[in-house]
Specification:
Layout lengths: L4 H7 L3 E2 L6 E5 L6 E6 L3 H20 L2 H17 L1 H12 L3 H21 L6 E3 L7 E8 L2 E5 L7 H13 L2 E5 L5 H13 L7 E3 L5 H10 L3 E7 L2 H11 L5 E5 L4 E5 L5 H13 L9 E7 H16 L19 H16 L3 E4 L3 E2 L2 E2 L2 E4 L16 E7 L2 H9 L3 E2 L1 E5 L3 H10 L4 E4 L14 E2 L2 E2 L4 H6 L2 E8 L6
Parallel strand pairs: 6-7, 6-9, 7-8, 9-10, 11-12, 11-19, 12-17, 16-17, 19-20
Antiparallel strand pairs: 1-3, 2-3, 4-5, 5-23, 10-22, 13-16, 14-15, 18-21
The chain binds succinic acid.
Length: 480
């Protein structure tokens, strides 16, 4: 399927429908057809974008918070006004079913709305003085030029979750979107311009040479902060590259989410929670349940009910109304998922359902008799495969859940309030869904511990990431 005329109009000059020298193709993952061509920016273009952001910074940070808020609100309204075209655009360039991409647009817009409001609440403090004649104060100031390197799995919301707080705080930004999904970023840029965002406040750099662009963004001293969402190995590399210029960092990295189901869980709720957490976006989210860790007494009935529900998922091109599982992002993703399933089967896993690719699509899959030795215990699957591990005691379940260097999201289902509180406290994760399989919102702090990263996105904490605290001691004031 091709871009619609409304989408082409929204994208304007930022795309070409025919090949051009120095432009790269953007593919539809469902049929591997070319959707459009996008300009391949170079390291020099990236430096130009940083210079533009640097030039725009004094005027943008000098505006009142209310003035920035008004522009953000207009941007939010425009995104929602174009919800239909944008949802279909995400389906076309990322593959996700249309029912889910409507949610992606509203989820993305919710960050713009939230931070438009929070812009006005970047409060400092007055601290009781330690000596007479002094006034001690903190103020919060925009950090400066920020770089945002964003992934393909949520091509709208992962941009707005970083850029909206940056703009609200008074920062200017250079965005490097994933080369798999540059079109969503370009539409956001066009709408931000329409909303009245001044020249240079948001800059988008598109390239298939991520390492080259990342190298410029991490080494340029004019960039004061980097926010990255992606894999842990790339996050570690960027972290090291930022050290010489001591940039502030937010890193939303890989996960290996455990989904614990205790014998006393409400089984239907646990199955629905697992379905939402595991199969959303065909399993391609950092917070997807990666290891379903199920207590012995409920294991067989949970496996049977989950298999029944997964059988109902419809593997179809995302633009078809009844699609509930779309394609994976590319061939490499399919090969990785197949490798993990084959490894598990070789080591004794039973395939209850699925287990096969259909070209660029992967079947909703349930595996039982799964064990610690299988690669998928330690690897983020990023596909619609649910491996069901078995445990006996609460201590063993918690230990299995924590047995990973990652610490992004964890889930647990139990009807015992004491157990719920104990388990939530003991899980070594930045976020816990207790009897809840869908935890992401704009009003709560999203982020991980351990090798899942640093910093928080969304919520009041999300704004703090783009502000620096200045302490001012006013002396010699006399008696005040
Ligand atoms: C992610 O996969 O990085 C984001 C998922 C979410 O916001 O729910």
């Amino acid at each position: 399927m091709k871009l619609t005329s409304a989408q082409v109009a929204l994208l304007g000059e930022t795309i070409s429908l025919t090949p051009r020298a120095g432009w790269f193709p953007v593919y539809n993952p469902a049929d591997a057809g070319v959707l459009a061509y996008v300009q391949e920016h170079t390291a020099d273009d990236t430096r130009t974008a940083i210079a533009a952001a640097d030039k725009a910074f004094p005027a943008w940070s000098g505006k009142t918070a209310k003035d920035r808020s008004i522009i953000l609100k207009k941007w939010n309204d425009l995104v929602l006004k174009h919800k239909e075209e944008m949802a279909l655009l995400v389906t076309l360039e990322q593959g996700r079913p249309i029912k889910e991409t409507h949610g992606e647009v509203t989820y993305g817009a919710s960050f713009i709305e939230w931070f438009a409001e929070e812009a006005k609440r970047a409060y400092g403090r007055t601290i009781p003085a330690t000596l007479p004649g002094k006034h001690l104060q903190t103020i919060k100031q925009a950090i400066g030029v920020c770089a945002a390197i964003t992934p393909w799995n949520f091509p709208i919301s992962m941009i707005t979750r970083k850029v909206s707080p940056a703009l609200a705080a008074g920062c200017t930004v250079v965005i490097k979107p994933s080369e798999e999904t540059p079109l969503s970023a370009l539409v956001l840029l066009q709408l931000a311009k329409q909303a009245g965002l001044p020249e240079g406040v948001i800059n988008v750099v598109n390239s298939t040479k991520a390492a080259e662009i990342g190298g410029v963004l991490t080494s340029d001293p004019r960039v004061k902060k980097l926010s990255f969402t992606g894999s842990t190995p790339v996050g570690k590399l960027l972290y090291a590259q930022c050290a010489p210029t001591m940039k502030k960092l937010s890193m939303e990295l890989g996960g290996n989410a455990p989904f614990l189901v205790f014998d006393d869980a409400e089984i239907d709720a646990a199955v629905e929670g697992a379905l939402a957490s595991k199969y959303r976006n065909s399993g391609q989210t950092c917070v997807c349940a990666n290891r379903l860790i199920v207590q012995s007494g409920i294991y067989d009935s949970f496996a049977a009910r989950l298999t029944e529900r997964v059988r109902e998922l419809k593997l179809e091109e995302g633009w078809k109304e009844d699609a509930t599982l779309g394609p994976l992002i590319n061939r490499k993703a399919i090969d990785k998922v197949q490798h993990l399933v084959d490894d598990a089967v070789k080591k004794g896993a039973h395939v209850e359902l699925g287990g096969k690719a259909h070209d660029l699509f992967y079947e909703g899959t349930v595996l039982t008799n799964v064990s610690r030795e299988m690669e998928l215990f330690d690897t983020e699957i990023f596909g619609p495969v649910a491996p069901l591990f078995r445990f006996e005691t609460e201590e063993e379940g918690i230990a299995m859940a924590n047995d990973t260097p990652f610490g992004l999201a964890a889930y647990a289902y139990t009807r015992d309030i004491g157990r719920a509180m104990r388990v939530a406290a003991k899980l070594q994760y930045g976020m816990v869904g207790m009897n809840d399989g869908l935890i992401s919102t704009e009003v709560t702090p999203f982020g991980g511990v351990k090798e899942s990263g640093l910093g928080r996105e969304g919520a009041v904490e999300g704004l703090e990431e783009y502000l620096s605290i200045k302490y001012i001691s006013y002396g010699g004031l006399g008696a005040i």
